[in-house]
């Protein structure tokens, strides 16, 4: 298991790293970042399994980072570390499908069970992936790769169009097709020439542009309706991807 710890407090990072090492768990790697920007850089080059993230950080808070992760790396297990025992933060954690919400100061007794549950989840995913790979190999032998790729791509595209405003992870989409995420991505790219993430983003932004052009629905409500509960992230990608002025 590879971990990423994100906190702008260097002492907190050192303490959390030490506590994790004391668990005696055979981690493959423990990376640290002091903010959103450095965390994203690590995530772009490393195959991280689990993130422990502080909420309040300069240059983009923890919720903004976790929203980015949910958009680009939805398979990662997210755990919030916070000094805030407030309903808003707990609500956002639920909306972002966070694995757990831990109040600081975290201790090995608290962190340990969370890590064990995460490892069980990862083991289950690996088993499912092996099963799906066996199924893919069988279907390839029986039906042929081209026919299967077209069918899977068409079915998942139809599902995305009907559920664009919902939280859609690559893992869940692949499970619906009884395929691995990598295989489903290849099938979709082969048929439509874009990745599933690119297609979903274009679809959501097109729906948002249509709603905004009517001038009836507030921007915050539009963001929620097209699947972007993080308003600041929505406005950023919308302005970047379209010529529409908010």
Describe the structure in your own words.
The protein is of the alpha/beta class. It has two domains: 2-121, 3-Layer(aba) Sandwich (Rossmann fold); 144-246, Homeodomain-like (Arc Repressor Mutant, subunit A), CATH 1.10.10. 63% of the residues lie in helices and 10% in strands. Helix 5 (108-143) packs across helix 6 (145-162) and helix 6 packs across helix 8 (181-192). The mean pLDDT is 81.
Order of helices and strands: EHEHEHEHEHHHHHHH
| CATH C-level of the largest domain | Alpha Beta
Main sheet makeup = 5 strands, parallel
Describe the oligomeric state of these chains in a short phrase. single chain
CATH superfamily of the largest domain: Response regulator
Distance between the termini: 42 Å
Q: Helical element count?
A: 11
Count the strands?
A: 5
How much helix is in the residues? 55-70%
CATH architecture of the largest domain: 3-Layer(aba) Sandwich
Low-confidence stretches: none
- Supply the number of structural domains: 2
Widest sheet: strand ordering: 2-1-3-4-5
Average pLDDT works out at 81
Strand content: 5-15%
Shape: globular
Task: Set out the fold topology.
Elements (H helix, E strand, L loop, with lengths): L1 E5 L3 H13 L6 E5 L2 H10 L4 E5 L7 H11 L4 E6 L4 H9 L4 E4 L4 H36 L1 H18 L7 H8 L3 H12 L3 H19 L4 H7 L5 H11 L5
Parallel strand pairs: 1-2, 1-3, 3-4, 4-5
